[in-house]
Amino acid sequence: MCGIIGIVGTTEVASALYDGLTVLQHRGQDAAGIATVDGARLRLHKGNGLVRDVFNSAGVSKLRGRIGIGHCRYPTAGSEGTEEAQPFYVNSPYGIAFAHNGNLVNTETLRKEMFEDDRRHIDTDSDSEVLLNVLAHELQVEDRGNLTHEHVFKAVSRVHARARGGYACIALVLGYGLIAFRDPHGIRPLVLGERVTAEGREYAVASESVALDVLGFKRLRDVAPGEAVIITEGGELLAQHCAEGAVHAPCIFEYVYLARPDSMIEDVSVYKARLRMGEKLAEKILRERGPDHGIDAVIPIPDTSRTAASSLAQALGVPMREGLVKNRYIGRTFIMPGQGERVKSVRRKLNAIDLEFRKKNVLLVDDSIVRGTTSRQIIQMARDAGAKNVYFASAAPPVRYPNIYGIDMPAASELIAAGRTVEEVEKALGADWLVYQDLDDLIWAVTDGNEDLRQFDTSCFSGEYVTGVDARFLEQQEAMRSDAAKNERRSA
Amino acid sequence: MCGIIGIVGTTEVASALYDGLTVLQHRGQDAAGIATVDGARLRLHKGNGLVRDVFNSAGVSKLRGRIGIGHCRYPTAGSEGTEEAQPFYVNSPYGIAFAHNGNLVNTETLRKEMFEDDRRHIDTDSDSEVLLNVLAHELQVEDRGNLTHEHVFKAVSRVHARARGGYACIALVLGYGLIAFRDPHGIRPLVLGERVTAEGREYAVASESVALDVLGFKRLRDVAPGEAVIITEGGELLAQHCAEGAVHAPCIFEYVYLARPDSMIEDVSVYKARLRMGEKLAEKILRERGPDHGIDAVIPIPDTSRTAASSLAQALGVPMREGLVKNRYIGRTFIMPGQGERVKSVRRKLNAIDLEFRKKNVLLVDDSIVRGTTSRQIIQMARDAGAKNVYFASAAPPVRYPNIYGIDMPAASELIAAGRTVEEVEKALGADWLVYQDLDDLIWAVTDGNEDLRQFDTSCFSGEYVTGVDARFLEQQEAMRSDAAKNERRSA
Amino acid sequence: MCGIIGIVGTTEVASALYDGLTVLQHRGQDAAGIATVDGARLRLHKGNGLVRDVFNSAGVSKLRGRIGIGHCRYPTAGSEGTEEAQPFYVNSPYGIAFAHNGNLVNTETLRKEMFEDDRRHIDTDSDSEVLLNVLAHELQVEDRGNLTHEHVFKAVSRVHARARGGYACIALVLGYGLIAFRDPHGIRPLVLGERVTAEGREYAVASESVALDVLGFKRLRDVAPGEAVIITEGGELLAQHCAEGAVHAPCIFEYVYLARPDSMIEDVSVYKARLRMGEKLAEKILRERGPDHGIDAVIPIPDTSRTAASSLAQALGVPMREGLVKNRYIGRTFIMPGQGERVKSVRRKLNAIDLEFRKKNVLLVDDSIVRGTTSRQIIQMARDAGAKNVYFASAAPPVRYPNIYGIDMPAASELIAAGRTVEEVEKALGADWLVYQDLDDLIWAVTDGNEDLRQFDTSCFSGEYVTGVDARFLEQQEAMRSDAAKNERRSA
Amino acid sequence: MCGIIGIVGTTEVASALYDGLTVLQHRGQDAAGIATVDGARLRLHKGNGLVRDVFNSAGVSKLRGRIGIGHCRYPTAGSEGTEEAQPFYVNSPYGIAFAHNGNLVNTETLRKEMFEDDRRHIDTDSDSEVLLNVLAHELQVEDRGNLTHEHVFKAVSRVHARARGGYACIALVLGYGLIAFRDPHGIRPLVLGERVTAEGREYAVASESVALDVLGFKRLRDVAPGEAVIITEGGELLAQHCAEGAVHAPCIFEYVYLARPDSMIEDVSVYKARLRMGEKLAEKILRERGPDHGIDAVIPIPDTSRTAASSLAQALGVPMREGLVKNRYIGRTFIMPGQGERVKSVRRKLNAIDLEFRKKNVLLVDDSIVRGTTSRQIIQMARDAGAKNVYFASAAPPVRYPNIYGIDMPAASELIAAGRTVEEVEKALGADWLVYQDLDDLIWAVTDGNEDLRQFDTSCFSGEYVTGVDARFLEQQEAMRSDAAKNERRSA
Questions:
Q1: Is the pLDDT of residue B332 over 90?
Q2: ipTM of this complex > 0.85?
Q3: What is the mean pLDDT of residues A190-206?
Q4: B450, B454, B457, B460: CA torsion to nearest 10
Q5: Is residue D222, in this structure, part of any structural domain at all?
Q6: For the whole model, what pTM was predicted?
Q7: Do chains A and C touch (3 or more CB pairs under 8 A)?
């Protein structure tokens, strides 16, 4: 996951981009960067770490200009290095800086075409750099003397024709303005907002509406699947659909876990969707366990599951208790020479309030279960704290397939639910019982907020990929994402 | 506020001190340090910033040894510099490292005595350095050829006789062991724990029991007011009361705000105490507003008030809603040249989920109200989000007096409730109505967990200081803590 | 001035580039960088500061590969920022890294053409970036399917046709190899060397032969004016003259001051040339002052003038004395608040050994006189040390015109000899007498080492620029190089 | 070796201490520090590295005050860590900062006494910290109510009675002033200077007179052996001899190598002493080799030997040639994986100008020969450059014994001349012939500048230690200084 933002303002824009990135930080804490246009110059500052650590006063003060883009990165498969912090930049044509959230599934083909046909060198493993060069090439090809909006829309159409996958992008073209576009399925989110100041009208695009909120921009609408939105340097807004037969199918995992609860995505409140997930889950529990479920307390595993847990508790008529306290300042793990037993990692992240567990039947709630390692440790922690029975509810269905559109998930072989029945997972986790949300209920929980939404990318639950995908690509991903592969890369 | 921890272990102790400090980090994010005994050497590493930023692998790996202390600092009045990161160290006598949480009220006198009588130079404004030198001097005076436990207890008694204020301290004496002690009122907390490993028995002392939990230590008991606990290098535990007429009166603000909910302080669960605060507050609201209070939702102001809000909501029979979302990655504020209107600071910290406010009567709950600036902005934010009526509840009584025992509060003149009636505060905040906890109810909420507790330091609510205090001292504090004074110091 | 180096080796090349840059460091201490080819990747590390400060183990260990280039920068007019550290990089076509020593005189024209015709964005004020893009464009234009040597030579010919000025360049083209070339006058130096190892034959190009010496490469020859030398990835060496009517006219200032004495440039030993400068100067002194010149000691102003001073002293039959000691560790100048009189800057750099001056007639020798500020202070220092008479000799003629081919000299208005007769300079410096080398003698001192050399760029002495130059360009340079202009840029 | 400086000024003193340290930097490049008195505060900044790297604007601007001391460190045996950067500080009594150049030979005894009798903890291996604590203890013992000059002189007398070795020290006592003193043999140098400004009279003490020169202080005299000089905060100067039977015996190696040529030590010009060393050496060569020595050129090994080489060349009637050029920017050695043959280290430091060697008989001159490794490589380099015969002269006698008074020399077993005759060394170095200065000639070369000097510490040549020394101490030193021991410590 990554967070992206772009603003065409009327006054200096760097501190707004900075503030916007801090509220998108949940989408990526690995690296951050900002690029602005300062007269004829591109100003670019990026680095590894949190937004607040990458930027200092000196860094921000160099980012002069009223037009800029920002990016925060969650490392997806194969993109862990420093060099791959975004925005990326190419100087030909025009000077283009580029911020991207998502992942392509035909990167290898494009990478090859890029060099063989276009002589463009891609220097990293990042498919963001590939996508930037595809865009750059198509703009270069279109340009006949001067760059018109028509050429830009045509170039984006060409990008849609060549690239396959999930991508939400903002390009900063020197001397021209911002170009924002989403893939033809609208897998990754991108929202457009407006602010009117004394100096004039300003536009912003961002991964989530919270970034607009914090800056006082009003949300206008989502960028449509396959659409390109241009905001010129002069502040003019233009938009055009650039993909034939675009089929809206956003990633449902945004609602489950990725997005902030206070965001609106595709006109659906993430918060409300999560409340509905809790309600649906309660219905299922009542269905399966009956009214005499014996649950004494619903305990959310902080922080994401709190919303679903609260509606679930209310629907069950059971108090919700904050029995697990998160350590917000967790640091690195240091291993001292000669040290024996290691503090278990979940103990460093979470602490149980024993009084809420002792002699109780507790229902632990999490948004989803991926590897299952943490869930297993928390269930054990609940037992150690004296719980009589420990039940476990997942607000999402079993995660059985990798995500290939930009969410960093482990290889399928490391997903606890891959190839296991619910009963087998229940046993593996050591829960007294385990309940998963049904996929239809999850879909309902989201679409109930916007009935125009009919399709989603639900691949990590269903194994069905909306863009289609080669078996070979999935194999490569599997190989690249395994822990063993990652460790090897890191030590290289 | 500060967090302190000390361990006498059987194997390397630095990573445990590090982990312990990360769970005490809520008590101070300004600076951190660790000192260990490595054979005949004291190893010390400290610096400004969060624990995770101050320590890297190289730093931690130098902190060899199985005995050590750690400290994290919240800047109290006058202690903002780098030089004042703790532990402090003096080389005479023995080599003593020292970590302290609290504040003295007779620092000036002691500082003078230290130099005139004892020729000890105090190089900072920190009263922790003063207290260390008082202890060092008394140990030096007592030592006749070799240091016995009796001498140590006598020296701590002398410290109690000379120092006035709130202090919980851990001293690391080279070649001897740890000495932990609390002031005769037990104002600041300090808890003792034990862990039995394959290599033998280990002891730890820490500001809060959560630090013991994370390390797998079992909480034995609180260090008593006026008591000194010795843990020798050999692992022997000794304790003795060292203050005549010690009267137990812990700081009640620990329960309101400072401590983590999962801590036990004086055998009282902070979490349970906060649940009881919510219940008492609900009773008062029902008493004052009647059952037709018209509240549609209880909305906690994250994070501390969540516990009280949940029991309050339950007692009122009203749903609790997470209508305010906190930005966990908030960064610095950058001001760009020529920039107009500034993003309001509360907007960068909190975002309202409009759906939870629109056309509703909401009760905002906070743990306490200090300056009132943030509360006023949040009330406005609730109105902007469409709330019909905005009510406000404080789980603590009006804060009208400065804290002088180590909690960094503004000068009295900057407290919104100082010199104001509740009605006047209500008006100043712009709330439709405002309710404060009664002091008796607050006291009950805590003592209901441990009936042996009879007295508290409640000075910030009542103006009564358990140690007594000079009017002149209060005046100095007032002058030093004002924003103007702080800005001046910072720019110096 | 800058130093450049490139190697096509048989094994890892980064540490050799690093070592090579340290011996070219006298050509530029402002910034440094290295780029290598690691498989399909370009590895690039650069930054402000000395080579030894820019590179650490981690930085160097990432620079994998057996082909690479390096650069160290002396800030020329307008190129002071961090962004302008070299090598520069463009990704289209091929991926090209570029290191350049020199300065163009038609930058503005090229910059304009680059954008208008080629849509290439130049993001800095550096004419190195312009030159790289000219080369990139010409390569792109030439490439028809695959890049042949013929295309490369043609592209370099086009660069020579478009660019005017002094330039020695090394380009690293991914998938192809190194391209090294010099401007058609050969103003800036570039030398080619070869090393045969067990793994095969290796080639290197560098600004000065000392960089070859330190790495054990044998000097083959200088790259010729207007020539392009290709060293392919496979280790093949090709060369071709690419400029019609190239006229050899190297910069004579290299021999006077810039180059290391142990370098061979155009088959002339810099050391020997300086010895000859001393001899010629002695002849002139004897001519002008007669054998009864009364000089008691010749004292070089360290370090450059030492060689000329030694032959001068020998020819005069007077002892040379190291009466001025240089402080090799000079640091920054800190100005404390309220501080009165400042230590004079030359005092911090040089210290006089009084015994060598007291009651003596001393002849101070410097390689050249630019602003005259330091010379004046040293003459005063000699008087303060008790000298009876202080004479001053410059191994070069009066510097009266700016250098525009890559040597950072002040604006003409700040040159002490500009618009002044020798007598006026003598007076301005406060010398008892002053002697300058004659230009013909300087030229003889160099050509005596290689009689094929017939012409030089002697513009800073003669005002004649071998490339021709617009009056407008000179005016711009004058404006940009004045101290006032520099201070303004720095504070921006 | 270390460099020390102290100033009692009338205005801010930090930038003067900084400038002074930069000209003392040749005495130690390993670490640097400055301490000043800012009202009642001690300001201290120190760290590893060169003076210019340790101090930045922020660091210096905190060093307020008109009284301060500075230190730069060359790592002596066992003092390589960061913690051991000086000045050291103790807070009891008074607050004392301390800078020391030298080495004690009874450290172990004092260290033990310090703890057993005085309870003072010494936290490092540095004997400077021991010496500071001895002084602190003696001041504490003497102080009866207030600190008089008499007490201070008595305390220094006690230090002289307890400490044995070479030491030049400056102590900064808060509220009192500076105390400067040298051991009773005056082994390490310390010089006193004075400056009169508009604000009044200022005093400075420093290791070498060059530090006074650069700051515009006039050299008054050397601090005498066993003397203590007090400069009070009020600017009063007092001095008293504090050691019975002090016998002046300064370290002769200062003249050979350590000191800057422009320093005056014991009223002897180091520069002149070196010229005389060259003359004496010429006499010996003429004696041994006769007037037909066949030497074509004298080539100094830069930089120290240049002075002696110039007088030697003149006395022999042979030209001196700068045939070896030093690389002033030498950096770290990076070893790349898979790399074959390493560049020889001397090649990275020195480059030969072949023309000066080819077919010549050259006499290489160095100030002294310690390990011989570099000398051997340079001789080989001369042969590689085509020299016919390579002769070698050392301006000092054979170094056969370790220095134990603060000069970092290798263990005796690693000295090439230890246990070898001159013929054996000649052979080991591969020289055609080798000549060493005679010890009597060396002594004459120094005493000819000040006939009051009668005795020196010449231990590294003669094995006679002026302070006397235990065999056991020498064994420890031998063990500690071996390369193996150093590598082990560094990797710990």
A1: no
A2: yes
A3: 96
A4: 90
A5: yes
A6: 0.92
A7: yes
